[in-house]
Amino acid sequence: MGTSRLPRPVNLPEVSFSDDGEVRHLHLGTPWIQGSMRIKAPFEIELEYVQRMMAWLLFRAPETVAGLHAMQLGLGAGAITKFCFKKLKMRTTAIELNPQVLQACKTWFKLPDDADRLEVLLADAAREIQQPRHQGAVDALQVDLYDHEAAAPVLDSEAFYADCRRLLADEGVMTVNLFGRDASYERSVEKIAAAFGADAVWAFRPTREGNTVVLAQRQASRPGRPLLVQRAEAIATRWGLPAPKWLRLFKPCA
Predict the structure, then answer these.
(1) Strand ranges inside 6-124, DSSP E
(2) Model confidence pLDDT, tens digit, residues 175-192
(3) How many domains does the chain have?
(4) In which domain, by residue range, is 136 found?
């Protein structure tokens, strides 16, 4: 396994990567994996929980996706940002606090430069999402804001989730990465439900690593099983995500 590092900025963790055979991993000052990329398929999504962050696709007609706007809070190794921009052809915005993470994504993880449909903002996500220009403008919001210790979400208050809801267009959907085996999980879900409404919240079972992806809709709906199956098959065919499997692991929380 090879490892490379970037100089550590003041008050932010050291950014490094390691190569483990065919897969490259991002690290922030610890052995915890903060993101991964298959070296020969840099625009696919490698990690299972990150794939599940795309479950919002079950709630949109596949032919409409390219006209939508995706936003990521937390860049990680850039997997979702790259997938939304390159594979789904969406307008894509990412918000990242650490400039070294952005440099790492561009240097080691094949993140394209900003373009007409791609913008990466170096900013504090909690403050940036309160800007009026973002309100009601996001169709798919992915939130993955763990610190370098991967101990708990950096932003996890009811007020924060209410701000996330205000970002969303009427049919917009948020997905959040939580540690499903951690004691804070139930509290996080309660805060999301308080901000979005309990009937708008869905959740996966935890992955083997303990990540649980929670989904919240701007406006609650209950698509029928036949429609979800049809959408899942289309997602697998068009974009190679294991969406049919999701349906066995994903259900409303209320």
Answers:
(1) 15-20, 23-28, 35-38, 69-73, 91-96, 118-122
(2) 999 975 567 889 999 999
(3) 1
(4) 43-252
